[in-house]
Specification:
Blueprint: H1 2-46, H2 52-59, E1 67-72, E2 78-81, H3 96-104, E3 106-113, E4 118-126, E5 132-140, H4 142-180, H5 196-228, E6 233-238, E7 243-246, H6 248-254, H7 272-282, E8 287-293, E9 296-305, E10 309-316, H8 318-353, H9 362-390, E11 399-402, H10 403-413, H11 415-420, E12 424-429, E13 433-436, H12 438-454, E14 461-468, E15 472-479, H13 486-489, H14 501-506, H15 513-523, E16 527-533, E17 537-545
Parallel strand pairs: 12-14
Antiparallel strand pairs: 1-2, 1-5, 3-4, 4-5, 6-7, 6-10, 8-9, 9-10, 11-13, 14-15, 15-17, 16-17
Length: 546
């Protein structure tokens, strides 16, 4: 600003000096011209009534070099001149002042010399004998006068420039100091009245900007909170393939290290199909693909953003695929499990219908049909129960229960089966209350105790224990049975999985008992643990939180 003020003041000074010099030159020039004209008129008017001879005689002794007198005959020839030889002068008949004098008795003119930058004023009068007397005087032109002012004006401008330099600094500091001291973050005090509109605009803009920043920050915080709390992963990729943003879920999916901005997506994803879909999305095409990452299956949806890049949405579909596979396997297993008893029932019924059975053997066939029908009913009941557990049905029927009573009831209902197999059951249960579904708890204990009897050795034992721990309730059932091979221990809770298929079928098992137990424990927020060794027995622990 100091430079602007300095140059403006210098420019103003120069203009003022030029205008003043021009005005003074013009005034002086007009004044001098008027004086010269008056002087010439007075000089010529003295000889107006004289003849040319009288006039020449009067001027013969004239020796003033400032004023020139000339006598010109009617033909325009110069016959007398006080400064020049008349014989060397050209004819003056066509001169303006002579032409005017011949018509009006007097005439005047002014001629400028480009060589000497001077002006000559001429005044002519007609004498008594029709000769002409011409008086001339040379004076400085207006340009010459203005030229005389230039050195003085230059010195004035130079002197003023030095003064202006210091004044511009002081004036700039005087103007800017109160403005520079204004704090935009606090209440603004207006240093000048002229700045009131400016300060008012600043205050309005500051309020508007603060409001906009607050809204933008709120939106950014909302978007960040949504993205960071989503279970789905979101990756935003720029047009050049560099990562722009990655939410927490995506970081955990792919074990990406921060910071991510600036990294190329090809450094993280090296799947050919994924990269192909990404290139298509960068070209503007929506697509999706499934990728395997750390034993998880993720579905990636590519959504192009016009001119900006691509948003990739990752969803963990591992459980969906697992559930779909389980449903397929479950349907296949149900069909297989139902087909066997139905085939047996159909075959025995057909033989009875066609009277292909010997007399007295009918009861044997009826017994087979009854046994297979009971097996089907048990299978269907288990399927219905496990379907209900899949749908979380029964949670609304939770009530306060005393577990030792249900365990005693279950042992009583299985006592005949235990006696038949010469299995002794030892129970040591504390009285513990828990909020649970009664029918499901009965089913849980029934399946575990039934399996302990069913897969035990002759004259074996079953030990049942229920303990009240600090923050947990622990039910433990241990048998001295055939045990479970290590390779099968991770699968015994799957639907229709049997360790010894022939023994399971002979004992009437459906293959869903432990799967039902697992679902019931999960529905009640508990966990189940299994310890087993082949031919040495099995120990299963069910733990519930209080």
């Amino acid at each position: 600003m100091k430079k602007i003020i300095f140059f403006d003041m210098i420019l103003l000074t120069v203009l003022c000096v030029i205008v003043a010099a021009s005005a003074f030159s013009f005034v002086f020039y007009q004044r001098i011209s008027q004086i010269v004209k008056s002087e010439l008129f007075e000089r010529a008017d003295i000889f107006r009534d004289n003849t040319s001879d009288t006039t020449m005689e009067a001027l013969s002794d004239y020796n003033n070099s400032e004023i020139r007198f000339s006598i010109i005959n009617p033909d325009g020839k110069v016959i007398f001149d006080t400064l020049f030889d008349p014989e060397k002068l050209e004819n003056h008949a066509d001169r303006k002042e002579i032409l005017e004098a011949s018509e009006k008795g007097f005439g005047e003119s002014k001629r400028f010399s480009n060589t000497f930058h001077e002006e000559t004023n001429y005044y002519a009068v007609k004498l008594a004998d029709d000769y002409f007397l011409r008086v001339a005087k040379t004076s400085r032109s207006i340009f010459s006068m203005f030229g005389d002012f230039v050195p003085t004006a230059f010195c004035v401008v130079l002197a003023l420039s030095v003064i202006v330099y210091f004044l511009a600094g002081r004036l700039t500091n005087y103007i800017l100091k109160p403005i520079n001291q204004v704090d935009l973050n606090s209440e603004i005090i207006m240093p000048y009245d002229e700045l009131k509109p400016f300060v008012k605009t600043i205050l309005e803009q500051r309020k508007y900007i603060e409001l906009q920043m607050s809204e933008l920050q709120e939106r950014a915080d909302t978007i960040a909170a949504i993205m960071d709390n989503m279970n789905e992963g979101i990756v935003i990729v720029e047009k050049n393939g560099n990562l722009l943003s990655v939410n927490k879920s995506a970081l955990s999916f792919f074990d990406i290290k921060l910071p991510v901005k600036g990294k190329n997506i090809l450094e993280i994803f090296r799947n050919a199909d994924f990269n192909e879909k990404l290139c298509a999305a960068l070209d503007g095409s929506c697509s999706e693909t499934d990728i395997e990452v750390y034993e998880k299956t993720l579905r990636a949806n590519f959504s192009p953003v016009s001119g900006s890049g691509v948003i990739i949405f990752f969803r963990d579909i591992t459980e969906n695929i697992s559930s779909e596979n389980m449903r397929k396997e479950f349907s296949a297993n149900v069909s297989h499990e139902l087909k066997t008893p139905l085939t047996t029932i159909y075959g025995n019924a057909e033989m009875l219908f066609n009277e292909m059975v010997k007399n007295g053997d009918e009861k044997l066939f009826y017994k087979r049909i009854k046994t297979e029908a009971e097996r089907m009913i048990r299978l269907i009941d288990d399927i219905i129960l496990i379907s209900k557990l899949d749908e979380d049905v029964g949670g609304e029927l939770f009530e306060e229960l005393e577990l030792s009573e249900i365990i005693a009831e279950t042992i009583d209902s299985l006592s005949q089966k235990a006696e038949k197999n010469n299995i002794s059951i030892n129970s040591s249960c504390e009285k513990i209350n828990i909020k649970a579904n009664r029918s499901q708890m009965y089913e849980l204990f029934y399946n575990l105790i039934d399996n302990a009897i069913k897969y035990n050795k002759p004259s074996g034992t079953v030990d049942i224990n229920l303990k009240n721990l600090n923050s947990e309730i622990k039910f433990v059932i241990k048998d001295s049975g055939i045990g479970i091979p290590k390779e099968s221990q991770s699968r015994v809770f799957e639907r229709f999985y049997r360790v010894d298929k022939s023994r399971s079928k002979n004992s009437g098992g459906t293959g869903l008992g432990l799967a039902i137990v697992k679902h019931i424990v999960k529905a009640h927020g508990g966990k189940i643990e299994l310890v087993s060794e082949e031919n040495c027995g099995t120990e299963i622990s069910v733990i519930f939180n209080k």
